[in-house]
Amino acid sequence: MTTRPSENPADLDRTDPEGEIAARAAAHRNWGRWGEDDVLGTLNFIDAAKRVAAASLVREGIVVSLAQAFDTDGPQTGWRRRTNPVHTMTDTGTDAERGNQGFPHGIGGADDVIAMPLQCSTQWDGLGHIFDHGMAWNGRRAGDVVTSDGDLVTGIEHTRTSFVTRGVLLDVAAHLRPETRELEDGYAITAADLEATIAAQGTSSVVGRGDIVVVRTGRYARTRREGWNGYAGGSAAGLSLTTAGWLHRTEIAGIATDTWGFEVRPNEFDVPSFQPLHQVVIPNMGLSIGEMWNLEELAEACHRLDRFDFFLAAPTLPITGAVGSPVNPVAVV
User: Fold this and answer.
1) Where in the sequence is the domain holding 101, given as residue range(s)?
2) What is the domain-level CATH number for residue 123?
3) What would the pLDDT profile of 164-197 be if each residue is shown by its tens digit?
4) Could you list the residue ranges forming a coiled coil in this record (predicted)?
5) Rounded to an integer, what is the distance from CA 274 to the centroid of its chain?
6) What's the whole-model pTM score?
7) Which long-range contacts (CB under 8 A, 24 or more apart) does 175-178 make?
8) Helix, strand or coil for residue 114?
9) Which element (helix H / strand E) includes 245?
């Protein structure tokens, strides 16, 4: 009988990230589960019946965008060449007024262009975004998957119709910190915390196969009050490495948070480590991760209606060969 890694953060060997990551990668690896040619990973859990059932959750007709803004007043600081979007007008109303656009009979127009990293604001990580010891999703060599021409195998364009399903909000911050509704930086959310939040919120938040789970920590709410203050790459509450087993056995299709990095920061080790849960769930489990989602209006609506599931449409842009995509997720309740 295979011993499963502990789901108690107190049991982590904080001096051995390599071993702790390897144990969870081996225990929760989905390589070959959907065939050797698979490019979707856990998005395979979403089927037509799941989407039909999700559509039945629309009762109020309330539409909520879960996107942060895409503008120069964003969280990015230049780390790994990630900048905030640069939006430039190539034709303006002034040009139209002056009649210098060359159009006939008085018609004028405006055009614009935007330049931005694909992970600069609300986004999905693609399966080609993270590797584990040089291996990509489904046991492929990383260098055979992503080259200077882009992701040749699991490019984000393959998911352009995938992210439509039942969404479930787990407002962990409101459950654990009802006074502030915000978790403190560095708080590691455990599988027990997720289950306790489900129990407190009720049956509408029970998580099932093919769902996309959105976890609210309250970190983005703080940025709106105090400014970015290290939001991109700094300290934050987030999922513990020990939640890998929960993420695997629930058979969810994806998970998103209101933080920059999805998992707890600083990470849970006393020696150098970087995003260990990413290393387990993307290349080994095939799980799609959403980051920097704005969950404030959704949380208000869910608590008011006392209902925490909804129809979710969060399609990626079909950017050929990309390893991530900006997104405007839409929840309909």
Assistant:
1) 84-115
2) 3.50.30.50
3) 999 999 999 999 999 999 999 999 999 999 999 9
4) none
5) 17
6) 0.96
7) 175/200, 175/201, 177/218
8) strand
9) helix 244-249
d(CA 55, CA 65): 17
Q: What is the pLDDT of residues 294-317, one digit of tens each?
A: 999 999 999 999 999 999 999 999
Same domain for 127 and 204, yes or no, is yes
Q: 332 forms bridges with which residues in the sheet?
A: 63, 311
Nearest to 239 by CA among 219, 215, 220, 221: 215
CA-only gyration radius of the chain, Å? 21
β pairing state of 212-215 and 63-65: unpaired
Nearest in space to 248 (alpha carbons), one of 3, 17, 27, 23: 27
Q: Are 108 and 125 members of one domain? A: no
Q: How many domains does the chain have?
A: 2
Using CA atoms, how far apart are residues 257 and 323, in angstroms rounded to an integer?
19
Same domain, 297 and 200: yes
pLDDT of residue 1: 46
The reported pLDDT for the residue numbered 244 is 98
Residue 98 has pLDDT above 60, yes or no: yes
In this model, does residue 57 exceed pLDDT 70?
yes
Among candidate residues 93, 115, 137, the one where a domain is terminated: 115
Nearest to 242 by CA among 13, 2, 1: 13
Residue entry with tokens 């009649």: 99
Backbone CA torsion sign across 47, 49, 50, 52: positive
Q: pLDDT band for position 3 (50/70/90)?
A: confident
Nearest by Cα to 333 from 66, 50, 58:
58
DSSP structure string for 220-240: HHHHHHH--TTTTTS-B-EE-
